[in-house]
Design goal:
CATH architecture of the largest domain: 3-Layer(aba) Sandwich
Helix content: 40-55%
CATH topology of the largest domain: Rossmann fold
Number of helices: 17
Keywords: 4Fe-4S, ATP-binding, Bacteriochlorophyll biosynthesis, Chlorophyll biosynthesis, Iron, Iron-sulfur, Metal-binding, Nucleotide-binding, Oxidoreductase, Photosynthesis, Plasmid
Structural class: alpha/beta
Pathway: Porphyrin-containing compound metabolism; bacteriochlorophyll biosynthesis (light-independent)
Distance between the termini: 54 Å
Radius of gyration: 22 Å
Number of domains: 3
Strand order of the largest sheet: 1-12-11-10-13-14
Shape: globular
Enzyme class: oxidoreductase
Cofactor: [4Fe-4S] cluster
CATH class of the largest domain: Alpha Beta
Organism: Tateyamaria omphalii
Number of strands: 14
Amino acid sequence: MTELPRLPTSGGCRETPILKQRGQREVFCGLTGIIWLHRKMQDAFFLVIGSRTCAHLLQSAAGVMIFAEPRFGTAILEETDLAGLADAQDELDKVVDELLTRRPDIKQLFLVGSCPSEVIKLDLAKAAERMTQRHAPSVRVLNFSGSGIETTFTQGEDACLASMVPVLPETDDRQLLLVGALPDVVEEQAIGLLEAMGIGPIKVLPAPRADADLGVGKNTVYALTQPFLGDTHDALTRRGARHLPAPFPFGEEGTTQWLAAIASEFGVAPDLFEQVTAAPRARARKAIAQAAEALNGKSIFFFPDSQLEIPLARFLTRECGMEAIEVGAPFIHKGLVGPDLDLLATGPTISEGQDVDLQLDRAKAAKPDLTVCGLGLANPLEAEGLATKWAIELVFTPVHFYEQAGDLAGLFSRPIRRAALLKLEAAE
């Protein structure tokens, strides 16, 4: 290998006009991010300031049994709070005092805003500052919004990580920071590949514990593992850290380009890069080829939901032979997904935001072989005879990097195979 893999310098969809629509939307609640974040941060607790609906959402979505001791909970806003008849700040102080007395293992406490707390303008930033002074240094209290009023569900993680960046210690160390919550086994694979190239030290945000040796400064370079971390990207940049733009590590090509961007920054020799990546790249290509047999030549339509849409469209069109009709995303941050747009061949409509009725009309007219959408649209579209894939499943399933590339392709091939079987049964 004479040089590291390079990105194209022209072509793609980066300059394709974006269809921007603002109307009725169909999105999931940002509190959902707590379900995977509370598993990553072992000494953190997420206290949602919300309604009983918020509590039921988290309990049912996380599948936590009633006698379990999870690292999240809900401070219920009662009628007196919503009507302004009680001092919600005093009530919140009492709840937090009781929580920290009962759970001395908590070292990071996140006050999480919801739709109800935002409607009554409850100042959680003020509350977090007051509680930090009260409980420091044993507990660090931060706040972020998980409300779904103006956001989509993956932005809960973005808001959480962005809230952590300003309080990270300053460091002048030259280091790589991997940003984004991944399943432990996937994170270990990524770090293992990078360390095999001699890259280090490697830090991770979010760290598993508050006392982790994690700082940020002008000598920090960071690579995002998730395409929905726009606010976190901006917060790290304000701290002086430098972003390494790259396609996101979905599939063999995306993973290789992501690793190559980091390898180039740290001066890894092409031969060493080839030595470390050759075997897992070959496994990924083989696994993708097997799963992609049902995908080749099929069309796909993305409703805006998870913000994974653009990197996934790049993967499915380039590595699985699919044709993208429309790629919709809630928000398009070209500083993050620009490299994926560079690789996505021109042709599909690129849309940002949503007027769900108009987009449903376009999907029904196009009759794609597969539609990626939120839970609320899946059943109606299935009733129209369209095969669907739940967007949220792509966030909860390990899909990053080489060893998961075949599983990622399989998530899309299964509903297409199922639709084909149903058609055969109907014809018999």
